[in-house]
Amino acid sequence: MKNGIALAVFDLAGTLVEDDNAVRDCLHKAAVEYGLNVTPDEISTHMGTNKIHLYQYLIARTKGNRIDFKNFEIDIDNSSFEDAVKLYERYTEYMIAFYQENCREIKGATEILKWCQENGIKVATGTGFHKDINSVIMESLGWVKDGLIDYAVDLDMVPEGKGRPAPFMIFKAMEYLNVQNVRQVIKLGDTPADMLEGYNAGCKAVIGVMQGSTPIEVWGKYYHTHVLDTVKELPELILSGKIV
Is the Cβ–Cβ distance between 234 and 188 less than 8 Å? Predict the structure, then answer.
């Protein structure tokens, strides 16, 4: 443990992994093929979530059912589940093809993971991806194999795939790594879903990073405790004693 921090939970795309709007664009491409009237910006605002649930959410909105994003994993419109699964399957094809060719870490990510491990901070990742895409990323970057990530949580590891903004992926990592106090956990991400996840879990710190594809003007409206340009600044923040 370092400065009262036992576990750091990192988002993947946009936080540890280069994105270049690929997740948004793959989601939007599948939506357009389906005939869903949605803009790339609207998808970007709701990044980091369970993608099947996201498509259910977007289909519901086009039908006039304006679900509050804070209730994203509570008020799910199950009438569109089958259509959302078809959209998700098409999106997954695009996303896996992208990561098989273009999976790159954000500059300095490996060094930050090493620093955490060397300073007694356990590392977990949480993501809006299911196992199929998460596995491609982890196999490409080798972080689990190299012992830099202690636990890589995906949506298939939590009940009913209830991902962000629900706190269950953070709790899953805490359970597996035997971290029993959420006030010893920090959360890092670059989307509104990340901020809400950290808030809903009651984390010691909820840290927004600005190098991701979602601008601070979008996620900054939600609860967060600190802002970093990039994850490379995390050691300085921890050593400064500003996380209390």
Answer: yes
Locus of tokens 């590891």: 157
Name 140's Cβ contacts closer than 8 Å, sequence gap at least 6. Answer: 99, 100, 103
User: What are the b/e assignments for 92-110, b being 16+ CB within 10 Å?
Assistant: bebbbebbeeeeebbebbb
Total H helices, total E strands in the chain: 10, 6
201 within 8 A of 7, measured Cβ to Cβ: no
Separation between Cα atoms, residue 7 and residue 154, nearest integer Å? 17
Q: pTM of this prediction?
A: 0.93
Look at residue 124 and tell me whether its pLDDT is greater than 90.
yes
What pLDDT does 244 receive? 82
Q: Cβ distance 7 to 187 under 8 Å? A: no
Q: Which of 16, 226, 227, 212 is nearest to 107 (CA)?
A: 16
CA–CA dist 1, 150 (Å, integer): 14
Q: In what order do the strands lie in the sheet with 226-228?
A: 151-153, 122-126, 7-11, 185-189, 205-209, 226-228
In whole angstroms, give the CA distance from residue 210 to residue 32.
28
Amino acid at 189: G
Strand boundaries in the chain, DSSP class E: 7-11, 122-126, 151-153, 185-189, 205-209, 226-228
Query: What is the band of 2 on the pLDDT scale with cuts at 50, 70, 90?
Result: confident
pLDDT above 90 coverage of the chain, percent: 78
